[in-house]
């Protein structure tokens, strides 16, 4: 089937509470690689030509709407308050379905986050000329999955795990739960199912037997990459898929020229655009939208989120950087914290235990040790001594500190914002600055040292 020309709708079944997660939030909102499980599925179907996507949920509808990003998809949220099975969920959608009888409906599950766009497109193409198509897989340990029952090579039935006989339990071909069905036929078949099974639920899979006995051929496509259909029912499975996902991401990066010290100790929880000859040490976490230039080195234990890093930057161990731009040849860390829309220009040094918040650093400036620099504009060739801080918060407002080119701020100085330090100015160590300083001015305000002699 040509996915560009078909009339396609998508149903994502996500009503399960996920009791085995032992959590107050819906299972599909637990995060894999930094985003909700359900979001992975929605992001995967973004490029399919679906006119509408129906998401069936069980509870916490407002929370789902808040946490899930729809992008440009037309999402319709369908409540299944009483959960009587997957067939009942489809009946709920059919009651509110907006479309034609000739539509093709792709049915997915919200807790299978690794299903790929490639697989879905192949399934849709293979669906041409059929009224129902199943995605199946062969696995060594099929326990827990519905089995595909065949006669003379043709699919005749799906047997759910709870209803399987001793004869059929060793069948290795399983139902992945993903299928494509003609809308008119789906509406007819779904209203013929019953709950005569061990769980007293209405199984969507029963439409396979109904279709077969009404003379329809059940088309199927067998998936080779079986990891794509691994589901999540508990936190162990979530952890397992997290590691599987991260190792696949790491393999892609290694094959594209990034050196990872240990691919098993690296996490990418977002997107990464990168240059060449990058080295990333162990236990590094990259989140959000990351851009990394050429010859960048990132040390052990760093966590970076929404950072643009230009060429030849060195980030030393255990630095945390968020929403920041780092220009070329800068050195950060170890144990530095830069955040809140900061901009670090070329050849800047932000040293150990320095926090930089919403601050611009000019070229060739440095803050080597133990400083807090918040809401500041720092010019070029400025030296910030150890322990120097900007006092930006007056209890109500965040105030600005401006330090102009070539200024020298001595160790343990306190700059009480709002304040301006002129070009080539010098602030002596231990000074509390409460007034603006002129260009070239040298100031010091610490008290005179004196000694107290003991009486004899």
UniProtKB/TrEMBL annotation:
Cross-referenced InterPro entries: Bifunctional_GlmU, GlmU-like, GlmU_C_LbH, Hexapep, Hexapep_transf_CS, MobA-like_NTP_Trfase, Nucleotide-diphossugar_trans, Trimer_LpxA-like_sf
Reactions catalysed according to its record: alpha-D-glucosamine 1-phosphate + acetyl-CoA = N-acetyl-alpha-D-glucosamine 1-phosphate + CoA + H(+); N-acetyl-alpha-D-glucosamine 1-phosphate + UTP + H(+) = UDP-N-acetyl-alpha-D-glucosamine + diphosphate
Tree of life domain: Eukaryota
GO term, biological process aspect, one: cell morphogenesis
Subcellular location per the Swiss-Prot or TrEMBL entry: Cytoplasm
GO MF annotation list: glucosamine-1-phosphate N-acetyltransferase activity; magnesium ion binding; UDP-N-acetylglucosamine diphosphorylase activity
Gene Ontology CC: cytoplasm
UniProt keyword annotation of Magnesium present: yes
Domain MobA-like NTP transferase: 11-128
Keywords linked to the UniProt accession: Acyltransferase, Cell shape, Cell wall biogenesis/degradation, Cytoplasm, Magnesium, Metal-binding, Multifunctional enzyme, Nucleotidyltransferase, Peptidoglycan synthesis, Repeat, Transferase
Matches recorded under SUPFAM superfamilies: Nucleotide-diphospho-sugar transferases, Trimeric LpxA-like enzymes
Cofactors: Mg(2+)
Homology family: In the C-terminal section; belongs to the transferase hexapeptide repeat family.
Protein name (database record): MobA-like NTP transferase domain-containing protein
Protein's organism: Glossina austeni (Savannah tsetse fly)
UniProt lineage: Eukaryota, Metazoa, Ecdysozoa, Arthropoda, Hexapoda
